[in-house]
Design goal:
Length: 206
């Protein structure tokens, strides 16, 4: 749903599709409880604000600082939570074609030197997030690909960056399987990234 009332879209794969890398129970809890809570909270926040009911999620997030103070932080937290989670879930796949990065592959080589150095840098970024947040591969118009982090449910779109891929490093994304071993979760996540989907986004932004 493009505007209020927002809905939690179904996963683009079965809950157990990413086993053994992302476990079924984590997928169920992460999607059906964590994301659903952000959706519910966002709708509850917007309920009485009829003039915002036709605003898209991106418009709400990017203009949060201009909104009334009483709803501003909730829009940032819950709107960001909805946007980031949907982006994260859509960015993984069990399809064989997921490693087909197309033109994005060439751009990664150009901007990071090698695939190994790209993965290492991405991993370091994800490990560097203190507490809860995300690591992102983004396209910065005019200067190419870069890796950035965001805290809590902040999003890179507010900085006019175009998101290509993201890893959620909130502990709820990995604790059931990996406990506090974030590095092991990051290694597993690399196995299920949908680079084909990331390439589609890259080509759209280019």
């Amino acid at each position: 749903n493009e505007h209020y009332p927002f809905v939690n879209p179904p996963l683009p794969y079965a809950y157990d599709a990413l086993e053994p890398f992302i476990d079924t129970k984590t997928m169920c809890l992460h999607h059906d409880r964590h994301l659903q809570t952000y959706v519910n909270n966002l709708n509850e926040t917007l309920k009485g604000w009829c003039d915002l009911h036709d605003w898209s999620l991106e418009k709400l997030i990017c203009n949060a600082d201009c909104l009334p103070e009483v709803i501003r932080q909730s829009i940032k937290n819950n709107g960001g939570g909805v946007y980031n989670h949907i982006f994260y879930f859509n960015g993984m796949s069990d399809l064989e074609s997921r490693s087909n990065a197309g033109m994005l592959f060439s751009a990664i080589l150009e901007d990071f030197g090698s695939i190994d150095s790209f993965f290492q840098e991405f991993k370091n970024k994800a490990l560097s997030v203190f507490g809860s947040g995300y690591a992102w591969l983004v396209l910065e118009r005019g200067s190419g690909l870069k890796l950035v982090t965001s805290a809590n449910q902040d999003t890179p779109i507010v900085k006019n960056l175009c998101p290509i891929a993201t890893i959620d490093v909130w502990e709820h994304a990995y604790y059931l399987k990996h406990y506090n071993q974030r590095a092991a979760y990051i290694d597993d996540w690399f196995q299920v990234v949908d680079w084909c989907y990331a390439n589609e986004l890259y080509m759209k932004y280019k």
